[in-house]
């Protein structure tokens, strides 16, 4: 009995690998069948690409293992560039079996919904993780680079399990644990990518809450970055306590205000 296009499409949607019965589909002259088969083949190519990228990230991390059972912590940050809000850092130790993390990538390459989904998966399956918020006071006191490093140090110290090695996205930290600084590590390392997701998701949530208090700055859209709308709001309403006073144009605004008070 000849199957309908819908029945064939349903079977293809359930298939996770190529099977012998698909050979017959190639001979089917119905346009709907050929379209369904092509759609499934394209889907499988994407799945295979994601799996390949995942395996490469895992192999990359494993290449740094000082010994077989060593634990690696990946570290990354979110929010070094914005004019407002904290810089948020995260540290993650992933288990050797990483299949559940397939699809994790640099947080900037993922949609917000995907980041939130993966953040939950990471929290539920990681050996250990920690997230630290470095406030604007410390950013202004130390400078953004040093504040980020100190935040990452606190992240490592807060982990329930001590790692044997830390791999960090393009920074060198003031820690005694062996470390490896990796340029564009969030695109190469699974552990760093996982940390970037946790940091970015936590910071987005913080900025959403800040938006509820100060809606005129549009923090839910710009996350504190210096967009045209944000800069216009700064010009009209001035900075709030969550604006970084060591960053321009806020620095000049604060200086001008102090001059007027003298």
Concise structural overview:
With 262 residues, the protein is an alpha/beta fold. The protein is built from eleven helices and five strands; from the N terminus they run αααββαβααββααααα.
Polypeptide structure, described:
This protein is an alpha/beta fold and 262 residues long. Helix content is 52%, strand content 11%. The chain contains 11 helices and 5 strands. Strands 3-2-1-4-5 form a 5-stranded mixed beta sheet, with helices on both faces. β1 and β2 form a beta hairpin. α1 runs parallel beside α3, α4 crosses α8 and α5 (136-142) crosses α6 (144-158). The protein is flat. The termini are far apart. The mean pLDDT is 94.
Question: Layout of SSEs?
Answer:
Elements: H1 5-14, H2 22-25, H3 31-62, E1 72-78, E2 87-93, H4 112-125, E3 128-134, H5 136-142, H6 144-158, E4 165-169, E5 179-182, H7 185-188, H8 190-213, H9 219-222, H10 228-237, H11 250-261
Parallel strand pairs: 1-4, 4-5
Antiparallel strand pairs: 1-2, 2-3
Helix pairs in contact: 1-3, 4-8, 5-6
């Amino acid at each position: 009995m000849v199957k309908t296009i819908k029945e064939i499409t349903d079977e293809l949607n359930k298939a996770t690998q190529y099977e012998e019965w698909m050979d017959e589909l190639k001979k089917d002259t119905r346009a709907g069948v050929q379209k369904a088969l092509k759609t499934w083949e394209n889907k499988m190519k994407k799945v295979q690409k994601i799996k390949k990228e995942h395996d490469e990230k895992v192999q990359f991390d494993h290449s740094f293992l000082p010994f077989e059972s060593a634990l690696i912590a990946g570290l990354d940050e979110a929010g070094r560039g914005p004019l407002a809000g904290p810089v948020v850092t995260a540290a993650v130790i992933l288990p050797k079996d990483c299949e559940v993390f397939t699809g994790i990538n640099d947080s900037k390459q993922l949609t917000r919904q995907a980041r939130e989904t993966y953040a939950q998966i990471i929290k539920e399956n990681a050996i250990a993780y920690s997230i630290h918020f470095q406030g604007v006071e410390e950013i202004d006191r130390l400078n953004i680079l040093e504040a980020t490093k100190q935040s990452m140090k606190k992240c490592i110290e807060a982990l329930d399990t001590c790692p044997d090695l830390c791999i960090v996205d393009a920074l060198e930290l003031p820690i005694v644990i062996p470390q490896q600084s990796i340029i564009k590590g969030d695109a190469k390392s699974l552990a760093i990518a996982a940390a970037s997701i946790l940091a970015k998701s936590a910071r987005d949530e913080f900025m959403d809450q800040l938006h509820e208090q100060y809606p005129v700055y549009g923090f839910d859209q710009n996350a504190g970055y210096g967009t045209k709308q944000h800069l216009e709001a700064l010009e009209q309403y001035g900075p709030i306590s969550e604006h970084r006073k060591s960053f321009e144009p806020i620095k000049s605004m604060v200086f001008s205000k102090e001059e007027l008070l003298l």
